[in-house]
Design brief:
By secondary structure, this protein is α/β, with parallel strands linked by helices. It folds into 3 domains: about 170 residues, L-fuculose-1-phosphate Aldolase, CATH 3.40.225.10; about 70 residues, no CATH class; about 290 residues, Spore Coat Polysaccharide Biosynthesis Protein SpsA, Chain A (Alpha-Beta Complex), CATH 3.90.550.10. About 40% of the residues lie in helices and about 15% in strands. It contains 15 helices and 18 strands. The chain has a 9-stranded mixed β-sheet with strand order 8-18-14-15-13-9-10-11-12, sandwiched between helices. A 7-stranded mixed β-sheet has the order 2-1-3-7-6-5-4, with helices on both faces. Strands 16-17 form a two-stranded antiparallel sheet. Strand 6 and strand 7 form a beta hairpin. The longest helix is centred in the middle third of the chain and has 30 residues. The radius of gyration is 29 Å and the shape is elongated. It starts with 15 loop residues before the first helix and ends in a 7-residue tail after the last strand.
């Protein structure tokens, strides 16, 4: 009798209905759109069946243990009042088609069907005396405030749960007086649920104490515009310290060259070496290369003995402090665009997705909306097993992606040296094609978000039919701003609202480049060396931009204004619209130049610290 015998796993009944895919419900965020790709799922060989059977049994135990743990916590804290399984309990996803539930009847309930449509990893309900007062106190409210300005959505009934904003990871149900919490990692579900309940208690307690102690409202010290009601944007001066440093560098270069010319004159007059005058021919080349070194000397001296207060000020090209956050009820939509190739799914892409989902969740709890847009340039090049693993991963996390055909397939050419620019152009072109079809649809006064999602799915299907070589799935629409990242990026959890606020308050800014740091893993000699070098480069860039220099756009960890990118779009030699240049290796430098020619500003932001 082994350890495995203590866990009684009931085998699910194999029926035709269980094999049917759950119908896609309309959602405020487009998810689970049918992908368009021509291949079949790989099946295990006979030699691997024994290994798969053992792995499946261990997987059953793992899911059963976490389910029992959550069920025990739910009952121990008295978060459940009805044990019949009508709409209260715990669910844990075993695979993409099967959920384990406590009570077992929960699987066929309205709550269970909704969670299957949302395709969450784990979910639980909370029915407690802490939750109920928030719903009974304000029956017409659309959300419940938490600490730090976060707000959790309120839905009328459990039937509306499939249309919930998934990035909230929670929703209050008004009719049933429940709080539903879900999580991508089942081991973190209880911690999230407990944090929300503690936040509710803290919010109502602080509000009560505030009403007792505050007899008069505090005066607003923020100056507001009379027409818009928004905060008046601070004036950002232009710093001229960089101009002074360049002038000193030129003077130093002139002195150095003057010493050389003096020695040259002595040789000509005293030694009659007239051939030395040929040295004057290389003067332009000598000046060009020497100016960099004189600029470095002046820069080092200025950092040692010059002013540094400009590093803590907001100027035209530099943001040292985060802007005032937007006070509007509707925040701009942000799209996080991430081009990938064949990077490792578990080692590289998964940590990036986890970081991005935390940022999206925070932004949506603050009232905004965001979506993740993956341009996977290696998906159609992978073997079937790896390809299906990536597609399942994308579907489980509920974000959109595009994939273009391999180079040379049916005459298709992947242009560019490193292919990043053409990869992003391909994804943006598919998104724009869908938008063009959506603009042709007439929207009556009764048009709802459900109708918008249905229209998007229909237009996306039409675009993929017109481009059979293209693969795409999920929400690939572009918002007001694009946060461009790499596949190995970590972002601050609370950065999207500040970034969107600064872009909204500075309509002349086309790109905000964030100062970045290095995420170390092994901390060995070579990694420490690269880290030191990268930090040195970014510290020099920050100092130069704070002094009045133009900010550099390095191609990642930057937020771009989508309207500005569309304004500088051009047509290539084949007549196709392009946003990124595919004819050079520095598409980011080309993008920055074209934006500045249209009088847009490139700015560097250091208020995020080393978060990026």
């Amino acid at each position: 009798m082994g350890v495995l015998s203590y866990f009684k796993i009931s085998k699910p009944e194999k029926s035709e209905s269980s094999k049917e895919k759950a119908p896609a419900a309309p959602n405020s965020v487009v998810e689970n759109v049918s992908p368009r790709h021509g291949y079949s799922d790989p099946s295990p060989t006979a030699s691997s069946r024994q290994s798969l059977s053992s792995n499946n049994r261990l997987d059953d135990i793992r899911h059963q243990v976490i389910l029992n743990y959550l069920w025990q916590k739910q009952r121990g804290l008295m978060w459940i009042m009805d044990n019949s399984g009508q709409h209260e309990g715990v669910m844990v996803r075993k695979d993409r088609t099967e959920y384990l539930c406590r009570p077992p009847a929960l699987a066929s309930s309205t709550f269970g069907r909704a969670m299957k449509i949302m395709n969450v990893s784990a979910a639980m309900t909370i029915n407690s005396t802490v939750v109920q007062p928030f719903l009974t106190r304000s029956p017409d409210a659309l959300d419940v405030p938490l600490t730090n300005g976060l707000r959790v959505q309120i839905l009328p009934t459990l039937e509306d749960l499939p249309r919930a904003r998934r990035a909230h990871y929670a929703a209050f149900i008004a009719r049933e007086a429940l709080l539903v919490v879900w999580e991508d990692d089942p081991t973190l579900l209880f911690d999230r649920a407990k944090a929300i309940e503690d936040g509710l208690l803290q919010t109502i307690w602080n509000a009560t104490e505030h009403e007792k102690t505050e007899t008069q409202p505090r005066a607003q010290v923020r100056e507001l515009d009379e027409e818009s009601g928004q905060s008046i944007v601070e004036e950002r001066p232009i710093m001229y310290l960089n101009t002074f440093m360049v002038s000193c560098s030129i003077c130093l270069l002139a002195c150095i060259m003057g010493l050389g010319y003096a020695q040259l004159a002595i040789e000509v007059v005293v030694l009659n070496h007239w051939i030395s005058l040929f040295y004057l021919i290389v003067t332009p080349i000598y000046s060009f290369f020497s100016l960099f070194f004189t600029n470095v000397v002046i820069g080092v001296l200025m950092q040692c003995f010059g002013p540094i207060q400009q590093l803590n000020r907001n100027t035209k090209f530099f943001s040292a402090k985060a802007p005032p956050r937007l006070l509007t009820t509707t925040l701009p939509h942000v799209t996080i665009q991430c081009p990938v190739y064949k990077e490792g799914l578990a080692a590289v892409i998964a940590p990036t997705i986890s970081s991005i989902k935390k940022a999206i969740s925070t932004y949506e709890l603050q009232g905004g909306s965001a979506n993740l847009f993956i341009n996977d340039d290696g998906l159609q090049l992978l073997d079937e097993a790896s390809r299906q693993q990536r597609i399942d991963f994308y579907a489980d996390h509920g974000f959109g992606w595009t994939a273009r055909p391999p180079n040379g397939q049916n005459g298709y050419e992947r242009k560019g040296k490193f292919k990043k620019a053409s990869n992003m152009n391909y994804g943006l072109a598919l998104s724009n094609s869908i938008e063009e079809k959506l603009q042709e649809i007439e929207r009556p006064a009764t048009w709802t978000q459900v109708d918008e999602v249905a229209a998007f799915e229909s237009c996306m299907s039409d675009v993929l039919d017109e481009n059979p070589e293209a693969w795409a799935e999920g929400n690939i629409r572009i918002g007001d701003y694009i946060l461009l990242i790499d596949s190995d990026t970590q972002v601050p959890e609370d950065c999207l609202l500040d970034a969107a606020s600064e872009m909204e308050q500075s309509p002349d800014v086309g790109i905000i480049q964030f100062s970045s740091a290095v995420m170390q893993v092994s901390h060995n000699f070579f990694e420490n060396g690269i880290t030191f070098f990268t930090n040195l480069i970014y510290s020099a860039i920050r100092y130069g931009v704070a002094n009045g220099g133009v900010a550099a756009f390095v191609g990642h960890n930057a937020i771009l204004r989508w309207a500005a990118i569309q304004e500088i779009a051009f047509e290539d030699e084949e007549g196709h619209e392009r946003f990124w240049s595919e004819s050079c290796v520095s598409e980011d430098f080309d993008m920055a130049l074209r934006l500045q020619l249209k009088h847009y500003t490139i700015r560097m932001a250091a208020w995020a610290g080393d978060g990026f």
